[in-house]
Amino acid sequence: MESSDQKEILLAVFNGTDRPGVTAAITTVLAKHDLTILDIGQVDIHKHLTLGVLFSVSSSGSGNVLKDLLFCANDLGVTVTFRIIDPDSYSEWVGNQGKNKYIITLLAKTITADMVSAITKEVADQGMNIDSVDRLTGRIPLVENQRHPRASIEISLRGTPKDQAAMQRHIIRISDEHHMDVSFQQDSMFRRMRRLICFDMDSTLIKTEVIDELADRAGVGEQVKEITARAMRGEIDFRESFRERVALLKGLDASVMHDIAVNLPLMDGLERTMHILKRVGFKIAILSGGFTYFGNYLKDLFDLDYVYANDLEIGPDGKLTGRYVGEVVDGQRKAELLKLIAQLEKVDIRQTVAVGDGANDLPMLSTAGLGIAFHAKPKVQESAKQSITTTGLDGILYFLGYKDSQLDEIQFSNIQ
Fold it and tell me: How does 338-370 read in b/e, with b if 16+ C-beta sit within 10 Å?
């Protein structure tokens, strides 16, 4: 004869119009019975509620629980369905807790069904399950000119990809085909506790290459721009290209640097990004193959923490000598500096972020816990695991997992 204290595991799922008090009424009914809630989850889409409650209860008491929940659902005007869960299935589910979780973030001007379809099909082909899908950006109005300039959703996955390298390649191809940005990250505690972010400067924080601006003032713009372009594409060694370009600046009056600095074209989304990152406690560094003078200008403007760049030698006549002072900040040096700053700030390398656009940024992008290629050259996009091309710099905030509701709260929290 079956013992009266034998446990059953039941899943109750409620669906219907959401309004204040629905969840309270359901859980009040559950509280009247001797049961244990094993899991609970609720979502609300356009005032439609789906609430799932997984609980264990004695076999002798399960009938009364189901009866009371049915009456409660009827009173609330919602539907409820029940499912008995096999104990072995439940034990397997518990055993998989916390294992192999990933996050895919989609970012575009508008999220379309074919974008979501392409990504979720790849997830299915890799044998992974989707735990949840969350919208990071605000609700979308029907009036087009009121629409937010970007849209982002976050998909939580569980499982082990059959071929993670192939999955990464396929995601990059899908993002190119559908003109969207996609981030694929392991969902660990380090992802939710980023503390240090390192930016390239030229063509990342600003919409120009400062050395090109200096070259224009020196009358050697075309020569320098060609060398710069080849270096950023990775066609020539950065150190050699840097030496050649600086040499062409010989004789330029150093006073022009101030005029260039105060007129730097800031990258779209830069001010919002810096304000948010500072407010949530990030340490922020500029690691640039450009020049310290301009990095310090941005440092003062946005109250940044570190600047490492290159120093131009200025002669006693106040003109550039065509030489530089100290060690060149090239790609390898950027990666070393990222690790050094992380040590100084006592930050695990997995809690670091790096953002850049050029081939000389690849070492730090691969070193950081999260490396993001921003409006990058094709070679960099192919090599980087995460890439942003469709939005401004504040697109990185969604890759960090922030929602618009949180960002707005942070952004305006200092306004009385």
Answer: beebbeeeebeebbbbbbbbbbbbbbbbebbbb
Res. 81 pLDDT band, cuts 50 70 90: very high
361 given a catalytic annotation? no
User: With the CA atoms of 202, 204, 205 and 206 taken in that order, what torsion angle do they form, in degrees rounded to the nearest 10?
Assistant: 50
What is the rounded distance in angstroms from the CA atom of residue 350 to the CA atom of residue 186?
Answer: 11
What is the distance between the alpha carbons of residues 269 and 271, in angstroms, rounded to a whole number? 6
Asked whether the CA dihedral 289, 294, 296, 302 is positive or negative, the reply is: negative
Pair 212, 221: CB distance under 8 Å: yes
Work out the pLDDT band at 415, boundaries 50, 70, 90: very low
Does residue 2 register a pLDDT over 50?
no
Q: What is the mean pLDDT of residues 329-351?
A: 96
Tell me how far apart the alpha carbons of residues 98 and 369 are, in angstroms, rounded to a whole number.
Answer: 19
The reply to whether 200 belongs to the active site is yes
d(CA 314, CA 261): 17
Q: What's this model's pTM, rounded to 2 decimal places?
A: 0.84
Q: Which of 181, 187, 200, 330 is catalytic?
A: 200
Please tell me whether residue 85 adopts helix, strand or coil conformation: coil
Confidence of residue 145 (pLDDT cuts 50, 70, 90): low
Distance CA 190, CA 391 (A): 25
Check pLDDT > 70 for residue 354.
yes
Length of the chain: 416
Q: What are phi and psi of 375, to 5 degrees?
A: 45, 50
Instruction: Identify the active-site residue in 181, 202, 330, 357.
Output: 202
